[in-house]
Amino acid sequence: MDLGIKGETALVVGASEGIGYESAKGLLEEGVNVMICSRNAEKLKVAAAELEKTTGRSVRWFAADVTKKEDVAGLKAWIAKEAPVLDILGSAVGGSQRALFEELDDDAWYANYEFNVMGAVRTIRAALEPLKQSKSGGRIVILGAAGPRMPYPHQLVSNVHKAGLIAMVKTLGVEFRPFNIRVNSVSPGRTMTGLWTTRIDKLSKERGEPAEKIIDEFSHEIPMGRFGRPEEIAPMVVFLSSHKTSYVTCQSILVDGGIARGLI
Ligand SMILES: NC(=O)c1ccc[n+]([C@@H]2O[C@H](COP(=O)([O-])OP(=O)(O)OC[C@H]3O[C@@H](n4cnc5c(N)ncnc54)[C@H](OP(=O)(O)O)[C@@H]3O)[C@@H](O)[C@H]2O)c1
């Protein structure tokens, strides 16, 4: 299927590893000119080199922490210089903190809000003017989560903040209509990236149980019976970034192995 995005320009933030990295790779494979961003310059340099080696295309990168206003000012200036016309923006920064209500103080709530919500807000702000210039209509794809659709108690902060992101997608899709920009989100379920390997290591040490036992326990609740892989989430990011979804906006699409069991 020709997705119609060859030669377009994309920025993926949170792309040095995990779902963002696979999304950048998927876009490169479709012939898109891809720029990537995340905090750590060393990781980015390695990721860009790997992407260039596997896809044969060049990748530009910029290091910025989207929870820091001064970094985002630098990112905005870099985008304006490198891509004054931007077609696609992917935002893959976010994550959860496993904790119960009584373990979370104000600082923990605010830190997760910065990470999950304000990171995406600042990223969109930095890229908005170049997205408005897209000849074919800009597309924004934000990584949400299945969590708000099947809230677990120990994922409280991210359940709340990712629900906010879904509300933001619904609102911005309308607000950005005059700019011809579509806004959607992809909501993954449990996907085996650094987020989960770190969490599983921690639980394994705390409980004195092998990692495999913990993976089995978490997999049991997933109708697919296993964790997703980042390369199984990325195609939906690429699809929503494409012109094959020209009538899709304001949506949050689950790619979760069936774990969110609600009818809507
Ligand atoms: N994995 C899952 O099971 C799962 C489930 C539901 C939703 N999601 C969502 O999917 C998205 C991607 O998750 P993932 O599992 O692929 O994450 P990941 O493997 O931890 O990768 C996160 C990426 O974001 C970058 N990053 C982190 N903090 C940043 C910041 N403040 N500013 C700029 N870049 C930052 C990281 O690189 P640096 O360290 O270099 O900054 C890395 O490239 C997130 O929004 C997450 O909430 C994931």
CATH-derived topology: Rossmann fold
Instruction: Detail the poorly predicted runs.
Output: none
Using the coordinates above, name the CATH class: Alpha Beta
What is the tally of beta strands? 7
Ligands bound here?
Answer: NADP nicotinamide-adenine-dinucleotide phosphate
Number of helices: 8
Q: In terms of quaternary structure, what is this?
A: single chain
Widest β-sheet, arrangement of strands: 3-2-1-4-5-6-7
Beta content: 5-15%
CATH superfamily: NAD(P)-binding Rossmann-like Domain
Largest sheet: 7 strands, parallel
Mean pLDDT: 97
Q: What gyration radius follows from the Cα positions, in whole Å?
A: 18 Å
User: How would you classify the helix and strand content by structural class?
Assistant: alpha/beta
First-residue to last-residue Cα separation: 28 Å
Number of domains: 1
The helix-strand sequence is: EHEHEHEHEHEHHHE
Overall 3D form? globular
Residues in helices, as a percent range: 40-55%
Known CATH architecture: 3-Layer(aba) Sandwich
Features:
7-stranded parallel β-sheet; 8 helices; single chain; 264 residues; Rossmann fold; 14% strand; binds NADP nicotinamide-adenine-dinucleotide phosphate; alpha/beta
Overview of the structural elements:
The chain is an alpha/beta fold and 264 residues long. It has one domain (9-191, 228-255): 3-Layer(aba) Sandwich (Rossmann fold). The protein contains 8 helices and 7 strands; from the N terminus they run βαβαβαβαβαβαααβ. It has helices at 18-29, 41-55, 69-82, 106-132, 156-175, 194-207, 211-220, 230-240, and strands spanning 9-13, 33-38, 59-63, 88-91, 139-143, 182-188, 252-255. It is globular. The model has no long low-confidence stretch (mean pLDDT 97). The site of NADP nicotinamide-adenine-dinucleotide phosphate has 30 residues, from helix 1 and helix 6.
